[in-house]
Amino acid sequence: MGIGIVVLLSFLLGVVTGEGDFHWNYHGGAAFNKWAAVSKFCSSNKQSPINIEKSRAKKNSQLGKISFIGYDSPLQSAMIKNNGHTAQVTITGNQNPAIEAGGLGNRYKFLQLHFHWGKSDSRGSEHTINGKEYPMEMHLVHYNNKYSPSDADKHHDGLAVLGVLFMISKEDNQNLSAIIDKLSSIQYKNSEVNLDKGLKLKSLLPDTFPYFRYSGSLTTPPCSEVVTWTVFVDTVEISTAQLKQFRNLKEGMPNEDSMALVDNHRPIQSLNQRFVHIASGFSDNINSGSHHLTSTFAIVITCLITFLHILK
Fold it and tell me: Which of 86, 113, 82 is nearest to 97 (CA)?
């Protein structure tokens, strides 16, 4: 792993070096109301996560579909780590998955993915839709190819993060097994293991169109306001049994009285003067999977009109 990526990863993990060596957490004396002591950006005006109100999302025909490069190729070398705040997957080899198009303006290279989850199935996501909380949210973090990894956090368009919301299902989601099967091996902080070969990033995603788009920040210190956020309308399924594996992780080391690593999600931040856009030509009353129905209906109508025209 290059030194630039190491530097950027330290920011994304909330590690702030310098005088005093500040620390942060989701609970206790270093929780949310203390984050501004770690970084002044944590009390700025373009913070994430936010509540997305569908009826107020502005339709944007310029966004279009996102292009995923290398997302359908199995990861050849990757590791998963408990960093005390989340379970994080990082590529350690030479693969370069990336995203572009979809109004991003440039290619963004994949850096890492991680999860936020709740103590119960009724909460856990960072973003909410119409006030609804989800039990888990996954973030896939990418940095802008026009910057070096160590400089990406210094530019307003430095990072692009894909937000995936999860819904509870009765059956296990087998696409997550490569990750979940390793969680018992990283129960404590700083423990890490290699992922088995075969995980495809694409398999972790829902249908990727339509999606919400807005400008925001990292959801952990230093809370840098450099993120182009994409939150997918559709969700991914996960069982309660699989979520329990995440809830078994610990915040601390084996020799410590470690708390369970749960509720690692930041509270909703004010939208302030920002707008949320939706890359969709459909109505504001969007439900998961409804765009498939709309497309199918349009095809049926088109075929019917063509058939009636032939009869004439």
Answer: 113
Q: What is the pTM of this model?
A: 0.85
Distances (CA, A) of 48 to 39, 228, 240, 309: 14, 11, 26, 52
pLDDT over 90 (residue 284) = no
Q: What sign does the dihedral 59-140-23-86 (CA atoms) show? A: positive
How many whole angstroms separate alpha carbon 203 and alpha carbon 17? 36
CA distance 142 to 113: 9
Beta partners for residue 89, in sequence order = 80, 113
Side chain identity, residue 297? F
142 within 8 A of 161, measured Cβ to Cβ: yes
Q: Which H or E run contains 277?
A: strand 277-278
The residue ranking higher by pLDDT, 219 or 293, is 219
Angle at the Cα of 183 from the Cα atoms of 141 and 3, rounded to 5 degrees: 40
Alpha-carbon distance of 180 to 173, in angstroms, equals: 10
| Burial grade of 278 (CB within 10 A; 0-12, 13-18, 19 or more) | buried
- 26 contact partners, CB below 8 Å, separation of at least 6: 32, 85, 263, 264, 265, 266
How far is 57 from 46, CA to CA, in rounded Å? 17
User: Which amino acids are annotated catalytic?
Assistant: 85
- Closest by alpha carbon to 121, among 232, 206, 243, 233? 243
pLDDT at position 126 over 80:
yes
Separation between Cα atoms, residue 181 and residue 203, nearest integer Å: 16
Per residue in 6-23, pLDDT tens? 435 544 544 333 333 458
Q: Where are the alpha helices (DSSP H) in the chain?
A: 3-12, 35-38, 177-180, 240-247, 290-311
Separation of alpha carbons 272 and 296, rounded Å: 38
